[in-house]
Design brief:
Layout lengths: L6 H11 L2 H7 L7 H11 L18 E3 L2 E3 L3 E3 L12 H12 L4 E2 L7 H7 L5 E4 L5 H13 L4 E5 L9 H6 L9 H8 L2 H8 L22 H8 L6 H11 L3 E6 L2 H9 L4 E4 L13 H12 L4 E5 L5 H9 L4 E4 L1 H10 L1 H21 L21
Parallel strand pairs: 3-10, 4-5, 5-6, 6-7, 7-8, 8-9, 9-10
Antiparallel strand pairs: 1-2
Helix pairs in contact: 1-15, 4-5, 4-16, 12-13, 14-16, 15-16
């Protein structure tokens, strides 16, 4: 394939280079995947107003997310097992994001550890926290994020229990992969991926193994993951986390105006309108369809971001127009990473930036901070 021009091109290339079990992990949703599909398709229902004979020079996409300067209103979302898409994946993606001037968010369930990412970056990154039953482990994660000088904590609120993801169950997903005939065949047909993985020592959950109680080796991880996600997590816990962290706090996984108001009451700095990429409650509405009502519900009390379904710069622009101060991309950067490593992450970001810039100009705007609902056509607009 020639140089990929779209996120869809990167997806095709990643499918050919990443073993099926790990590509499916990045590219699947829960149950029937109806919410996963709606996240993408609902963006296409939003139409833009074309404007002509306006000055399109000196355009800028620079803005801020939670007061931090960004080159465009896009952050790399926290994604589990990123280091299984490409060897040292989190480290490569973090470096690409830093060079591009956008935030990178490291998942608790990453392959590379907090310390690994800190060792290859010079600017603060963000850390995503899952709240476990073992509160000492949670406190240790927060301590390690502080030591790494992470500049924001992203608390995921929509994974108290794990949604049923049929592809992962059928694939027998694990990190590192099991050595069954099926898994060996999947890896053998991806020799470049295997060669890269053989050259790294990072093949398991770096934030957990050797840090969590009774998780001294890879074999202990499945039992830990099954038992430790805390179904009792509530709004009362947010105050405790905020106190322990002491810095900017973002709550991820808000999909209802009532929950958005509750999040604003906690004093958090931002919420991320998200349905976990369609990987939790199948049948839930798309993130973009809920954005306007959530923005209306909280007003200026808390910054509103959006995650889910973004596959182009046009999607980012539509989210900003409907009230999002920032957006997150998960699958687009994972496709780039799986396809081409660090270069692919940079290319994914560049594709989105270019599409956003051109679309903004054709909508008659020169500064992303001036983009609002005026660029949305009444026909096909999201309500």
């Amino acid at each position: 394939m020639s140089t990929p021009l779209t996120i869809a091109d990167l997806k095709k290339l990643a499918r050919r280079r990443v073993p099926k079990m790990f590509f499916d992990y990045a590219d699947s949703g829960a149950w029937t995947e109806s919410t996963y599909a709606a996240n993408e398709s609902d963006f296409s229902q939003i139409k833009l107003r074309q404007r002509v004979l306006v000055d399109m020079t000196n355009r800028t996409l620079e803005t801020t997310m939670i007061g931090q300067k960004v080159s465009m209103p896009v952050a790399l979302a926290p994604t589990g097992m990123t280091g299984m898409q490409h060897a040292d994946g989190e480290m490569l993606a973090a470096r690409a994001a830093e060079e591009f001037g956008v935030p990178f968010t490291l998942s608790t369930m990453s392959i590379c550890s907090i310390e690994d990412v800190a060792s290859v970056t010079t600017r603060p990154f963000w850390f995503q926290l899952y709240v476990m039953r073992d509160k000492d482990f949670v406190l240790d994660l927060i301590r390690r994020a502080k030591a790494a000088k992470c500049s924001a904590l992203v608390l995921t609120a929509d994974l108290q229990i794990l949604g049923q993801r049929h592809k992962d169950l059928r694939n027998g997903l694990s990190a590192p992969p099991k050595l069954t005939p099926k898994h060996i065949w999947q890896m053998a047909t991806r020799p470049l991926w295997c060669l890269e993985m053989l050259q790294t020592k990072r093949r398991y959950f770096g934030n957990i193994v050797g840090h969590a109680k009774n998780v001294a080796n890879v074999a202990s991880v499945p039992k830990f993951a099954h038992e430790q996600f805390d179904p009792r997590l509530s709004w009362a816990d947010v105050a405790w986390i905020k106190e322990q962290w002491g810095g900017p706090l973002i709550i991820k996984g808000v999909l209802d105006p009532e929950d958005a108001r509750a999040a604003a009451d906690t004093g958090a700095d931002a919420i991320i309108v998200s349905n976990h990429g369609g990987r939790q409650l199948d049948g839930a509405p798309s993130s973009i369809s809920m954005l306007p009502s959530i923005v209306e519900a909280v007003g200026d009390r808390i910054e509103v971001h959006l995650d889910g379904g973004i596959r182009s710069g046009q999607d980012v622009l539509k989210a900003v127009a409907l009230g999002a101060k920032g957006t997150y991309i998960g699958r687009p950067f994972l496709y780039g990473l799986g396809a081409m490593g660090k270069e692919g992450v940079t290319l994914a970001l560049d594709i989105i930036r270019r599409e956003m810039d051109i679309t903004m100009a054709l909508c008659g705007k020169r500064d992303i901070k001036d983009v609002n609902a005026s660029i949305i056509s009444r026909q096909g607009s999201s309500k």
